[in-house]
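On to my pick:
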Amino acid sequence: MKILVLAGRYGLSGVPLAQLRFARALASEGHNVELIYGAVNDGHTLPSSDIFKVLTLNKLRVSQMFYFLVKYFKNSSPDIVFSAGDHLNAVVLSAAILSNSKAKISCSSRVTPFDTYSNKILSKGWFLKVVMRLVSFRADALTCVSKDMVDQYKLIFNNSKHFCIYNIIVDESSKKKMLLSNDEPWLRNRDCPIIIAAGALEPWKGFSDLIHAIKHLESDYRVKLLILGDGSSRGELQDLILSLNLQDSIKLTGFIENPLSYFKDSDIFVLSSYVEGLPNVLVESMMAGCTPVSTDCPTGPKEVLLDGKYGYLAPMHDPKGLAQCIKQAIMKPIAQEILDHAITPFSESTVIKKHFKSLGVK
């Protein structure tokens, strides 16, 4: 089958990487796959592949992809289209209607609708909501990456037809990347438990709470924390580390191209977020053998950890509670066989089967 996989921008973050994994998995099953990004983020290089086509349109806004997609649908006639992100989904469905495309279309939502849609008349979120109500009939499948998010969509849209299909997170390429070496001194010369976190250094990731949690741990455990990533809060977080005299215990590594190799050599992964879609990085850390600790934020962590069966859940905005969960993870780590069972729903074969079943394709 001829399959088009779409994402707004390429970068080393959740949605574009998930679509890359998805395209690779589909191509590995013998499908004719083309992966198209609207643009490539500064500092990143468009990936290449020997088994599927990859290209960028150099369109910084997904709305600018509309006319290309109308022509693509008319000239290339894909059998299936997989789109990710509500703004892009609206553009894809509109283009399919205008071009009279016969393709089966699956639209995936990746972030909470409360951050995307609005009831404020004439706002961007309000316009998007109006457009989606008009064009969603054209979607053969409307999916979310977590079950909690499905419930949120039912609150936003009456008679919502959204259902949950997870991202592909566990694949052979990721497993190979996990086994590569890294040159981080703290991981090469281990003298205490290593805690790791990763993500954009932005306020909603809650890294300041995690730093305070490490301070609370000081009296009971000596640990080291690596925070992988970069962002607008880096200076503020570095100042906090210095003010708490934690510079020998916490390191901001900056951007790391292959965080999986860091996860493999760490003991505990902590997600301190206030909001998520479905935290891919939490599943990746479990694949690499880290005992997971996460805030019970909307949406996804409770679902991934099955209410605490597969890891430790802490309240949001509560450094002491987060520290207590880290203590539990140190005292009682989660065995790899349990983690392997927990991440099965995120494997290539499981996810692809669910997508094709939802579209009535064998």
